[in-house]
Amino acid sequence: MSGIVPIVEPEVMIDGTHDIDTCQRVSEHVWKEVTAALQRHGVIWEGCLLKPNMIVPGAESGKTASPEEVARYTVMTLGRTMPAALPGVTFLSGGLSEVQATEYLNAMNRIKDLPRP
């Protein structure tokens, strides 16, 4: 035991012209691959934190998504890819304003069926 907590950051960049559906598909693929790699290396989920991106359209796409839409896509993708033993998720806000990131987090917290450990 080394007494350290791995914080894993599988980030799909906000840069680009992709829409929210593309971000969701790519994020799901990346997060599944990261989960599989951590499993192969024997990472103990109960001692790990995840710090992924939120599911949003690309910054150069000219498209916007409501906080509720970002929350729904992000929570859905987490549920499809992360083991229940994972004790916590923090989020990267790279490229998002403080206001946007806060609105998205608030919308996630309002989801009634949000899976919690």
TrEMBL record:
Catalytic reactions of this protein: beta-D-fructose 1,6-bisphosphate = D-glyceraldehyde 3-phosphate + dihydroxyacetone phosphate
Cross-referenced SUPFAM superfamilies: Aldolase (SSF51569)
Biochemical pathway: Carbohydrate degradation; glycolysis; D-glyceraldehyde 3-phosphate and glycerone phosphate from D-glucose: step 4/4
Listed GO MF terms: fructose-bisphosphate aldolase activity
Top-level class of the enzyme under EC nomenclature: lyase
Domain of life of the native organism: Eukaryota
GO biological process entries: glycolytic process
EC number(s) reported in the record: 4.1.2.13
Signal peptide: none
UniProt keyword terms in alphabetical order: Glycolysis, Lyase, Schiff base
Homology family: Belongs to the class I fructose-bisphosphate aldolase family.
PANTHER family found in the cross-reference section: FRUCTOSE-BISPHOSPHATE ALDOLASE
Full protein name: Fructose-bisphosphate aldolase
Organism: Lygus hesperus
